[in-house]
Amino acid sequence: MTTIDDLFGLRGRVAVVTGATGRLGRVMAAALAGAGATTWLIGRDEGRLKALAGELGPNCRPARCDVTSDEDVAALGARLTAEGGRVDVLVHNAHVGRGGSLRSARPADYMEAANLALGAFQRLLDGTRELLVAAAADSSPTVITVASMYGLVSPKPQLYDTPEAGNPPYYGAVKAGLVQLTRYAAVELGPAGVRVNCITPGPFPGSDGDPALLARLGAQTPLGRVGDPAEIATSVLYLASPRSSYVTGANLVVDGGWTAW
């Protein structure tokens, strides 16, 4: 009988999750570690990373790294090379949340957002490419980027209490770019056996989410609710597993149907 472990088990695999202490990052990391992968938790706050590793268990390794720093990412790549020599799953989830509008946005905001979403993705690929290719010898290594529904559609201003409370335009612009960069990377890395896919989340609650706002957001979906973080975890686990070995260049939209109408 085929078991869940046969389908989605990741024992002997190595996963790297950036933005690991974020609201969705920690759920993704928990899913990968729970499936048996040695899971590297990446972020800028070492204390929070260690706390999360203690919470998630012995499969997790905290590693402080600022993905906007060439030096930090190079050091991470060297550490991964020294301590295993392979990466089977790379999740690019680093994100800084803030509100804003066209009226308040400045050119520097676009550059900062692009560095975190797009520049960091390039750095991470540069730092782990050989490790991903090495894993292709006996696995189906995958890179997973995390975009946003606001990379596909614009926010509805009337859902937010003030213009500055909504997602800023530079956030959606770089997330749209990340979806396209995912396709580029899938085409370039495919011949080496490395898959690259994107997950586009819809409305999901944060730890300090405003219940009234969440209710308004949920009402905009055909399912009539916001997402449960576990519904992102299973999507990541599917794309991370060898069972999705013929899936690359795809954008898996997990938004309760937000972008369907």
TrEMBL record:
This is Gluconate 5-dehydrogenase. Belongs to the short-chain dehydrogenases/reductases (SDR) family. SUPFAM superfamilies: NAD(P)-binding Rossmann-fold domains. InterPro entries: NAD(P)-bd_dom_sf (IPR036291), SDR_fam (IPR002347), Sec_Metab_Biosynth_SDR (IPR052178). Keywords: NADP, Oxidoreductase. It comes from the Bacteria. It comes from Paractinoplanes durhamensis. The keyword Disulfide bond does not apply.
